[in-house]
Design brief:
It is built from eight helices and 33 strands. It is of the alpha/beta class. Helix 6 packs across helix 7.
Length: 423
């Protein structure tokens, strides 16, 4: 019988709808981040750096790119005969077949997978946060307190606490109570959605609560364990942790990577971030190009000027182009003479010559102001923008657009231009 001390279950099925067109064709954990990475690389790298060598990745929404990226886990040294990384989509069962309906339901549907490793502990992770964390230290805390459930928490400013699940603890960090997005929070310890369960405790809770619709950890499993009197503890984490669930937080987290002293450092020897890298030639910068405070991916050719931006792999930035404060993902081509300001440009986009993005005054987006805001221009993957058009702020473009889509060669601030077809 195989026996693993701790296995990880990584929830990567989320759509990430607040990222708008960035996730219309790709799961949020597979979205590019930091030039050469994808969001899921961070929790996966944390696992291997923490000595956790068995990871089940639960996928559901648009899983193709995620599956291709993870493959058999070679970049993370997770290609093991026993354990390693396994992609776990919802599958056809003889009795009834169903999608994963909640975070805990997804775990419940994979009881057999977990059982096969006979673990003592199960680590539950989310696939869409940017952080570095040694799960071994959290496990030591879990064991030292003889906890049955340990929840990673992070102190947040009291005025923001009502946005989170909040843990109330005694002086020994034992959880005495918890509140989901309380109006008047009694504590500022926010749950990070990272849990360590004793396997027996988790299994019993999942089997008992299995019939709950949209079975969820915060709403069902943890309250059940608490009511049963299981010892629950809060493990306080004080490092960098970012939920990149909105376009503005995603943009900010990328921009923080290029600070003079980045709060989140991609270059630490002892805590590497692993990813699947394509075999690409080196970057090329022409004699008159300018690059200042940027991350530039491999295989990228720069003939223009790029300031304060994160540029992916295989990108071409034409002559006379000026890019500022932007995220440009893999395989984007920007024609000569463009001006790009505070834009997020997804993969495989083609931008014509003389295009200006992010011009004029701000106006509220006309279709989804809660998604497209903070003055950003967002361009969905495989989109085409024709020559010599100007685009305002808080705008979104997706699909193959032509000059006819831009009245007077202009898309005003706050406008949405989404077309169905792709190239």
């Amino acid at each position: 019988m195989i026996k693993k001390e701790m296995i990880a279950m990584l929830l990567a099925g989320g759509q990430g709808s607040r990222l708008g067109v960035l996730t219309s064709k790709v799961a949020k954990p597979a979205v590019a981040f930091g030039g050469k990475y994808r969001i899921i690389d961070f929790p996966l790298s944390n696992c291997i750096n923490s000595g956790v060598d068995t990871v089940g990745v639960l996928t559901q929404y648009q899983p193709l790119r995620l599956n291709t990226h993870i493959g058999i886990g070679i970049p993370w040294d997770l290609d093991r005969n026993i354990g390693g990384v396994t992609v776990l989509p919802p599958y056809e069962k003889s009795a009834n077949s169903e999608w994963y309906t909640g975070t805990a339901n997804a775990i419940f549907q994979n009881l057999d997978y977990m059982e096969s490793f006979n673990p003592e502990y199960v680590l539950i992770l989310s696939g869409d946060h940017i952080y570095k964390m040694d799960y071994e230290v959290m496990l030591d805390f879990h064991k030292a307190n003889e906890a049955e459930v340990t929840i990673a928490v992070m102190p947040v400013p009291m005025e923001e606490a009502s946005r989170f699940g909040i843990m109330i603890t005694d002086e020994n960090r034992r959880i005495t109570d918890f509140e989901e997005k309380p109006e008047h929070p009694r504590s500022n310890l926010a749950s990070m959605g990272i849990y360590i369960f004793n396997w027996k405790t988790l299994k019993e809770a999942l089997l008992t609560m299995a019939d709950q619709p949209a079975l969820d950890f915060g709403k069902h499993v943890i309250p059940y364990c608490h009511e049963k009197g299981a010892p629950l503890y809060a493990y306080e984490f004080n490092g960098y942790w970012k939920d990149v669930g909105t376009l503005s937080s995603y943009w900010e987290a990328n921009m923080e990577l290029i600070d003079i002293v980045p709060e989140f450092n991609l270059y630490e020897e002892y805590w590497k971030i692993y990813t699947k890298s394509d075999i690409l030639p080196p970057q090329y910068m022409s004699w008159d190009s300018v690059v200042s405070r940027c991350i530039i991916g491999e295989g990228t050719n720069i003939y223009g000027k790029v300031y304060n931006s994160v540029v992916g792999c295989g990108v071409t930035i034409g002559e006379g182009v000026v890019v500022r404060d932007s995220i440009i993902m893999n395989n984007v081509v920007i024609g000569a003479g463009c001006e790009i300001n505070k834009a997020i440009i997804a993969e495989n986009v083609l931008i014509g010559k003389g295009v200006k993005l992010g011009v004029g005054d701000e106006a509220e987006n006309d279709t989804a102001p809660h998604i497209y805001n903070h003055g950003l221009v967002t361009v969905g993957e495989k989109s085409v923008i024709p020559d010599n058009v100007s685009v305002g702020k808080n705008t979104v473009i997706a699909g193959v657009t032509t000059a006819a889509d831009y009245a007077d060669a202009y898309l005003a601030s706050g406008k949405t231009l989404i077309k169905a077809e792709e190239r």
